[in-house]
Amino acid sequence: MFDTMTLTKVVGGLCGTLLVFLLGGWAADIIYGGGHGGHHGEVEQAYSIPVEDGGDAGAAEEEAVPFEEIYASADASAGEGVWRNCRSCHALEEGVNGTGPSLHGVVGRAVGAEAGYSYSGALVAVADVWSPENLNGFLEAPRDYAPGTKMTYNGLKDAEDRANLIAYLDTIN
User: Fold this and answer.
1) What is the pLDDT of residues 103-126, one digit of tens each?
2) What is the DSSP string of 57-115?
3) How confident is the model at residue 148 (pLDDT cuts 50, 70, 90)?
């Protein structure tokens, strides 16, 4: 049922298919790649758009808005939605500690002052009070703000989300 001729046909078919793909890639490179093939070197663009300032379009960064301005217009109800990221480790009830300390009244509270929670000590070294600015820095990148902290969360990258969350936490007293 399976003889030498069948095996020869299968191998020949696979080799033929591979050859078609290789030749097709070579032809496409000549047609669309300008005939440069796999050669190294500078490839000249077919059409370039002159830029007056000579700078990169991607290099222009927006001016950073100070956190105080973002926090002044923060929405505490939007911060309640951001809180969902935090509630797996933290509680809002006073004195209820989980993996992380209770965040009841955290805005304006002394750093490392939640009773019954064992802090790592890294936080006390970087701040005295959880002001909105200190919370912003910590929530952006906890391990960068306080190296050695127990908090393993990667942080909130969006400044508006951080401001909204801090505004929400400020309402929990």
Assistant:
1) 999 999 998 888 888 887 888 888
2) TTT-PPPPPPHHHHHHT--HHHHHHHGGGTTTT---STT--SSS---TT-TTPBTT--T
3) confident
**pLDDT reported for residue 127:** 87
CATH number of the domain encompassing residue 124 = 1.10.760.10
Number of domains in the chain: 1
Assigned domain for 99 exists: yes
105's CB contacts (< 8 A; 6+ apart) are 94, 172, 173
**Mean pLDDT computed over every residue of the chain:** 84
Q: How far apart are CA 36 and CA 42, in angstroms?
A: 10
The DSSP secondary-structure symbol of 38 reads T
In order of 21, 111, 158, 159, the CA distances from 59 in angstroms are: 40, 38, 20, 21
Kindly provide the b/e burial profile for residues 64-73, where b requires at least 16 CB atoms within 10 angstroms of the residue's own CB.
eeebeebbee
What residue numbers bound the domain in which 149 lies?
A: 73-171
The predicted model scores a pTM of: 0.62
